[in-house]
Amino acid sequence: MKSFWPFARRRVTAETQSAGLPPVIEAAPSDMARFLTLEDEETTALEGARRRLTMIGVALGFAFTILGGRAIMLAVAGDAGPAEQIVAADGPRGDLVDRNGNVLATTLETWSLFADPTQVWDAAETAEALATVLPDLDVEQVTRDLSTRRRFVWIQRNLTPRQRQAVFSLGMPGLDFRTEPRRVYPRGRLASHVVGFSDRDLNGIAGAERAFDGALEAGDGRPVALSIDMGVQYHVDEVLRASMQEFRALAAVGVVMDVQTGEVLSMVSLPDYDANRPAEARSDDRLNRATQAVYEMGSTFKAFTVALGLETGIARPGETFDASNPLRIGGHTIHDFHAQNRELTLSEIFTHSSNIGSSLIALEAGPEAQRDLLQRLRLLEAAPIELAETASPLLPRQWGPTETATISYGHGLAVSPLSVAAAFAAIANGGVYVQPTLQPVRPGETVAGEQVLDPDVAQHVLDLMREVVADGTGRRAEVPGYRVAGKTGTAEKPDRGGYSRNRLISSFSAVFPYDDPQYVVLVMLDEPHGNASTYGYATAGYTAAPAAGAIIERIAPILGVERIDDPLERAALVRAALSPDPDMPEARIQH
Which residues have C-beta within 8 Å of that of residue 270, sequence separation ≥ 6? Predict the structure, then answer.
């Protein structure tokens, strides 16, 4: 039968079956090798493309996640202003501590209340409900804030745990909390002028918080130590508060300073304020009177006038000055309230606090020499300390003979109490001026100073200061065993057309121990009033000097100053108690 298939069918036999087909590679070796190579390259390319697509997908997903988070943040924050943005610091703000490590300022996490007005059902009802647990809340302002279409408004920041729980218990919709850092001052009022305070964003505003803001914000969280000794600070503060109350004074200042290093161990200014609530304090209470206010300091300046006389050679031991009669100068008359009506030696001018004798010394030395000495003692500039709250002195418009005379006994030139303390520290330190500082000095560290007085001149003035306490107007500052040296100063406050006899600045500048001077203590009372215990006097010998003695007696053991018992010294104290000799206020210029 004839087949219609165009190809003839081949019979399968044993021979043909055993022979089989030849291997493909042998049938077409070159074509098949090229085919496999192309297949491998295609596979590799596909795998690379898949990896690239996977990486692109991951990157896009991450980017969309960031954009989505940012969109959510903007939706929550709404059109909040810059003051409402919370910026994360690189690190925590460091603590402020005293020289012994006691914490003066630290940072705590607190809760702050905010609202999303779009989620608040009734703005007025919510504000009124919040006011029941947050009494200081301004209901009208909060109602207005909650009535906006903003997505974020602050209600109240830095809540206490109890306040947060009370708000939470209200169950009002649209309210929530954020944690925020808050600066806390554990000591409250104590040393508040030195420590200062910061704002809500932890920026230093006043005191050490401002002075050392850079170190506190370094980001490493390390504490910043101050030279202040809180044990000393406590006793100075307590004594001054008692003196203010006893003598009904308007204000008080106390400074304790290391004469060799310049370290300020205590700085008290009263009235004061709670550093945790600075906004609630009066501006007058926030004033640091130790550095930021200036006063005419009265006869304390006679120590500098004596130094001027010794330095210029005008006043030599044993030389006398005629104080027999009031001094007429420039149409004015200068009197002595402790008038001796005779010639006085340099020592007598100082111990009797003679305005006439001081004026004669200064006039003979001349205004240029006087200004030069006061400038070297840094009394014609703001106190060189780290605080921003320092005031420049009030200088006379012209420095003629009248001004030279009155400045010699502490009138006509107003300076800060710290500046006066630093000048007395130079006298106690052998004539070497060391800048006052709030930074502690490490043991063994050398502090650079400037020789502003001849050592012999400084020692002579210190000897006279010891006489003032041993047998002069400063007797009530004596503390058995510590041999105090010092100088009283009672200045009448300027008033319209002259000076007021009844408004006084009483101060005492002390150095102890006299034999080995280590510390200066300055006490100042603003407008003290006399009482029965002072025979009605409000002068420095009765008000400021006893306060300085009480401070020294308290702080000397803390500072490690050894008490030396001296029977003769005790006898002198008994004589002083039995025969009081009140000091009188320094003379104003009589027109």
Answer: 237, 240, 241, 244, 251, 252, 253, 289
Separation of alpha carbons 259 and 473, rounded Å:
23
Q: How far is C-alpha 426 from the geometric centre of its chain's CA atoms?
A: 23
Q: Which residue is catalytic, options 299, 358, 359, 408?
A: 299
Pairwise CA distance, residues 78 & 3, whole Å:
91
Per-residue pLDDT of the chain (591 residues; tens, 9 = 90+): 444 333 333 444 444 444 443 443 333 444 444 444 444 555 555 566 566 656 666 566 665 555 555 544 444 444 433 333 333 445 789 999 999 999 999 999 888 999 999 999 999 999 999 999 999 899 999 999 999 989 999 999 888 889 999 998 998 899 999 988 899 999 999 999 999 999 988 999 999 999 999 999 987 889 999 999 999 999 999 999 999 999 999 999 999 999 999 999 999 999 999 999 999 999 999 999 999 999 999 999 999 999 999 999 998 877 889 888 889 888 788 988 776 778 888 988 998 888 999 999 999 999 999 999 999 999 999 999 999 999 999 999 999 999 999 999 999 999 999 999 999 999 999 999 999 999 999 988 989 999 999 999 999 999 999 999 998 889 999 999 999 999 999 999 998 878 888 899 999 999 999 999 999 999 999 999 999 999 999 999 999 999 999 999 999 999 999 998 766 666 655 655 555 544 444 444 433
Q: How far apart are CA 216 and CA 96, in angstroms?
A: 8
DSSP 532: G
| Residues forming beta bridges with residue 524, ordered by sequence position | 253, 507
Q: How far, rounded to the nearest angstrom, does the alpha carbon of residue 5 sit from its chain's CA centroid?
A: 115
- How many other C-beta atoms can be found within 10 angstroms of the C-beta atom of residue 257? 26
Q: Is 13 helix (H, G, I), strand (E, B) or coil?
A: coil
pTM for the model stands at: 0.79
Query: Catalytic annotation on 299?
Result: yes
